[in-house]
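Incident review: delayed structure delivery

Summary: a single-chain prediction request sat in the queue longer than the usual turnaround. Root cause was a stuck worker, restarted by the on-call engineer. No data loss occurred. The affected request and its eventual output are reproduced below so the record is complete for anyone auditing the incident later.

Affected input:
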Amino acid sequence: MPNVCSYCIIKTYDAKGRGFVKRIIFHIDVNSAFLSWEAARRVANGEDDIRLIPSAIGGDREKRTGVILAKSIPAKKFGIKTGEPVGMALHKCPDLYLAKPDFRLYVKCSKAFMDICREYTPVVEKYSIDECFLDMTGTDILYPDPIKTAYEIKDRIYKELGFTVNVGIGPCKILAKMASDFEKPNKVHTLFKEEIPEKMWPLPVRELFSIGRSTADRLEGAGIKTIGDLARLDLKTVQAFIGEKVGKQIHDYANGIDLSPVLEEPEEAKGYSISTTLEEDVVTTEGAYKILLALADSVCQRMRADDKKAFCVGVTIRGNDFKNHSHQHTLEEATDITSEVYSISKRLFSELWDKKTPLRLLGISLTQVTDEENTQLSFFAAENKEKERRLDKAMDAIREKFGSSTVVRASNYQSDLEVGKKYKAQIENKIKK
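Output delivered after worker restart:
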């Protein structure tokens, strides 16, 4: 029996019905995904690389509204954080270049890099739009050197798609995830059991995955400053201080213990979905609503492009406790209207969130999809819905022709679905035609 901790191995059976194989898990994380994807598109079109200047994705510069969804490394040097208000970011860096979000581009880039990952193993778990886990266990005949393979995947993604990723390698998901968060960008890092004392335990306790701000404050206030301090504590002491369930989880993670498998996700049922993970926690309802608006706008645009509508709207949130929660609502009439999906998403979100747990991920799904021609509107709703649908399609057409940032929605919807005054006349003319 090899000298490997039990959670680092899986039991498989050879021809004689015996044998143990060491687990090898990759975590692949796109560096500043939204900004990298926008930058890669611009570079491919012969434009300047916005990754090299203080730049960010999100919000409206003129109105100083919205939140920062991603930022460049030069912007980070000014103290700009993901999730903070645009006005605050511009105060820190008045020359900050802002680009509008384009979730259709993000979905395309996400699929492209995960398709490359699936060439190396069929067991790929999409964790969010910009990160995934690969179970490389048992692939040693094809790929005997996992570090070399990680570099190959990383370099292929950059060469073929134009953006960089970090790859973390470990014997379980938590260690692979922690490894990928080490020095960035465009790096490969390992975090095996024997490396934990040197590489992970000296880190501040708040850098342990799943530990939120309030939990970190409590731990540090009690003198638990590093991940190693937490790992060396007795489990019952941690549970008495933090709580039984959360205490066990963070104590296990601090010791590199994670039994969760990499789940090969089946082909998604016919529907449309989008989600995003932010580097910084979402802690306000207003901030969450702005992200939901951008997600609803993008996923509805994709669905309208296929002449489809959905009867069911779902919202998923993931807290910094690493747990997903979702809720859905079934409509009497199928919809493809952005404002309707956004309104329902806000209500579902308010029912899901306890307003205490910091959020890392928000997502919207549209399922129970039907063909446009098979959907009937009620007489009373038809006129208003058709007006909003025509407005949506006019915006889609302008974006398709002139670019995704040509038309942007107001930071909050009003009953008449307001849009920026600069483009309102252009949209109304499009509708008339």
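Verification: The chain has 15 helices and 14 strands.
Action items: add queue-age alerting; document worker restart procedure.
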